[in-house]
Design a protein that fits this description.
The complex is a heterodimer of chains A (about 220) and B (about 475).
Chain A lengths: L1 E5 L7 H16 L4 E6 L11 E4 L5 H9 L6 E4 L3 E3 L14 E5 L9 H6 L2 E8 L2 H13 L9 H11 L5 E4 L1 H4 L15 E3 L5 H11 L7
Parallel strand pairs in A: 1-2, 1-4, 2-3, 6-8
Antiparallel strand pairs in A: 4-7, 5-9, 6-7
Chain B lengths: L12 H18 L14 E5 L5 H4 L7 E4 L2 H7 L6 E4 L18 E5 L5 H5 L5 E6 L10 H8 L5 E2 L5 H11 L4 E5 L25 E5 L2 E5 L1 H16 L3 E4 L4 H9 L4 E3 L3 H9 L9 H4 L5 H7 L5 H13 L14 H14 L3 E5 L5 H5 L5 E6 L11 E5 L3 H10 L6 E6 L7 H8 E9 L7 H9 L6 E4 L12 E5 L4
Classes of the chains: A alpha/beta (about 220), B alpha/beta (about 475).
Chain lengths: ~220, ~475
């Protein structure tokens, strides 16, 4: 299995910090997997040993989909604000899916009808086997009018492709594979992959820096 | 502020270019001067007269020079005020009616895009020609390229969707930064009136309202867009504006509470704004055009490989915590990155740091000669060739020692992560020079950084505060006191 993460360092160093922590969490729980960093021409390599794939600067969503559309075979594609907490390679033991997506059925975090109707899967964690799935998503995304290419447009494009019925889609429980921690110090019991999305990114940033601390003598 | 409506231009760019070519031909034939940039001086004020209904209530407060537009020029003339300038950029033929008959004593600042009959109507009156930005034509040729080819070396004013907005930019070209703005209302009155007098434009009766200051204003798509553009323009451009009259724009200006704009019925603020002058901070301007803040510009030019290095340094610094006799917090990565960015751009030779602790900030900063740092209660850092720690030493003692060692006027950058003592002030002044930068951590409500700024700023001549980077949403509280210079 390959693991791909897209990280581009612009002005905010926290994204790079997250990428670093993600790579370390992958290495800790799945030491033998190949990790690929999809990025631009300037961003440094997160950790030595990671395979780096670079393309020129451009709109983030489009560049990320372009990278994903090169992924043939068993790939786990992760947002950089996720943290791997368990070995998840067994998901690929199931031969009968082209793409496995995590649902948004998070306990105590109700999703609005609009979200559930247009983008019921959060794409921060995706298990992918078919390169053509992403090529189709990219084509759908590119066809969106300019003012529809907002931050969530990638997830809407994914769902549009899912709805074509062209691909076998496995639905994974978001509470396990794409878990948004409820508090900064959530123990994440039973969680395979935590996702510090939106304002929760700050918790991840703080947790990483707190983890560096060593006890003082006084 | 988001521009609320997507609107299509009334006249296509291809047609505009035909009218522009005609205007250029006429101008060349008759020898009309072109609009040229005049150096901006801070003490000149331009009155801008738009044609909103409130003009009728405020025109008597106007002072020359006056730049008016649309029907405002005729309105003012009818009320005994001859404007100095009239500006127009409407390409539609029927809007030229406002010019007829022309008014003696007015210089007409006419965009080349105006319809051909303009030049006949105004043939006996002084005209200055300029070009307004009109997008790209059906072949993809944008206005800058078109003007460069058809009227070489002339300015293109990219002002906005209305002449009122564009008048502010023309004012800038004429050398003004201070504006007294009348009749820029952006709404129609309850009785449906949207101008101070007769107007030849199409009615704008869209049932659109906009609430501001708890009051509902009736507006239109065109006016709402212009209002949003006005707020954005005032926010983004180095200008000082006092808006007169009662209207939607004026209400939103008050709501926005901008440092450079207010309404005439805010007398204290208006007095301040009328006295204000622009001072700028030296910063990487090349990158700034796509930056929302000073910090964005600085971070854009920081080499990206600095980030992993700073992460490594921050982790190494944490390993020194075991040596701390007084264990406290250290700066976050975001602050370290910004300190590095400051050093990367301004290249300080000598840095003085108050508050070493485990050295996260010390490692982040780069001095080409030496960095002196002190900590009253800790000894965590080992000296290097150019990092000179002063363990168990308070700020006053280190600053005094530096003065005694002959570093007066040497320090390019101070970083304060501790409280500045009263006794420190004269020593800091002694060690500083006119371009010294003061970086201050904990610049948040009730924190020591704010106290440090209050203590230091009164002793600095012509310095301004760069607040913490808003993009970091409180993750960094690093502020700067920066020397200001005239633009």
């Amino acid at each position: 299995m390959n693991v791909g993460l897209y990280t581009v360092l612009r002005r905010d160093p926290q994204h790079f910090l997250h990428a670093l922590a993600l790579v370390q969490s992958i290495q800790q729980h799945m030491p033998d997997v190949e990790i690929h960093q999809f990025t631009d021409l300037q961003t440094p390599v997160a950790v030595d040993g990671v395979q780096v794939h670079r393309t020129a600067d451009g709109p983030m969503l489009e560049r990320r989909l372009e990278h994903y559309a090169t992924c043939e075979g068993d790939w786990l594609l992760l947002d950089t604000d996720t943290v791997v907490l368990q070995d998840v390679r067994s998901v690929f033991d199931d031969p009968v899916f082209d793409v496995a997506l995590a649902d948004r059925n998070w306990k105590g975090i109700p999703q609005g009808d609009e979200i559930l109707l247009t983008m019921p899967f959060n794409t921060g964690v995706v298990f992918s086997r078919r390169q053509t799935f992403w090529q189709d998503v990219l084509a759908v995304w590119r066809a969106f009018p300019k003012d529809a290419k907002d931050w969530y447009s990638e997830q809407r494009a994914v769902y549009q492709v899912v709805r074509t019925g062209k691909y076998r889609v496995k639905i994974l429980p978001g509470e396990v594979y794409n878990y948004p921690p409820r508090t900064k110090h959530d123990h994440c019991t039973g969680v395979a992959i935590a996702h510090f999305k939106g304002p929760k990114k700050q918790w991840l940033t703080e947790l990483i820096q707190e983890s560096w601390r060593v006890p003082a003598s006084a | 502020m988001k521009i609320p409506y997507a609107l299509t231009a009334a006249v296509k760019t291809d047609e505009r270019y035909v009218q522009m070519q005609h205007a250029i031909d006429v101008a060349n034939q008759r020898g009309y001067p072109r609009l040229e940039q005049v150096p901006i001086t801070e003490d000149r004020v331009l009155t801008v007269a738009c044609y909103g209904p409130s003009l009728a209530e405020t025109y008597q407060e106007m002072r020359h020079p006056i730049l008016s537009m649309s029907g405002a020029t005729r309105f003012l003339a009818d009320h005994g005020i001859i404007p100095d300038f009239h500006a127009d950029m409407d390409p539609r033929a029927y809007k030229a009616k406002h010019l007829n008959p022309p008014i003696d004593g007015v210089r007409y600042l006419m965009a080349s895009v105006c319809p051909p009959q303009t030049w006949e109507t105004l043939k006996d009156h002084p005209i200055t020609l300029w070009h307004t930005y009109s997008g790209a034509d059906s072949k993809g040729i944008d206005t800058y390229t078109w003007v460069a080819e058809h009227d070489p070396n002339q300015l293109v004013v990219h002002g906005g969707s209305t002449i009122g907005l564009t008048a502010l930019h023309i004012g800038g070209v004429l050398g003004y930064r201070h504006f007294e703005i009348h009749g820029m209302d952006g709404n129609r009155r309850e009785d449906g009136i949207r101008h101070a007098g007769p107007h030849y434009g199409k009615p704008q009766n869209d049932p659109i309202t906009w609430n501001a200051e708890g009051r509902r204003y009736h507006t239109s798509q065109i006016m709402a867009n212009a209002v949003a553009e006005t707020i954005n323009t005032v926010k983004r451009f180095p200008m000082f504006c006092v808006f007169h009259g009662d209207g939607l724009t004026q209400a939103l200006i008050r709501e926005a509470n901008l440092p450079n704009a207010c309404t005439a019925n805010q007398p204290d603020k208006a007095a301040q704004i009328r006295q204000a002058c622009l001072r700028v901070v030296e910063m990487p301007l090349g990158a700034a055009k796509q930056c929302a803040s000073y910090w964005d510009a600085l971070l854009d030019i920081l080499p990206k490989d600095a980030i992993p290095e700073l992460i490594r340094f921050a982790r190494q610094a944490e390993s020194l915590r075991k040596h701390a006799t007084y264990n406290t917090g250290t700066i976050p990565l975001e602050t370290a990155v910004q300190l590095r960015a400051v050093c990367h751009y301004y290249r300080p030779r000598i840095i003085v740091e108050i508050g070493t602790f485990i050295g996260t900030s010390t490692y982040a900063m780069v001095a080409s000669d030496r960095l002196f740092t002190c900590d009253e209660r800790n000894d965590c850092l080992v000296a290097t060739d150019n990092v000179i720690p002063h363990p168990y030493m308070g700020s006053t003692a280190m600053l005094r020692a530096l003065v005694e060692e002959g570093h007066a006027g040497d320090v390019d950058l101070f970083f304060f992560d501790g409280r500045i003592q009263n006794a420190d002030i004269p020593l800091i002044q002694h060690l500083s020079h006119p371009k010294t930068i003061y970086a201050i951590d904990d610049c948040a409500d009730g924190q020591k950084g704010v106290a440090n700024i209050k203590k230091l700023l009164p002793h600095l001549q012509s310095y301004g505060v760069i607040p913490p980077n808003p993009a970091f949403k409180g993750r960094s509280t690093l502020g700067l006191l920066m020397p200001l210079v005239a633009p």
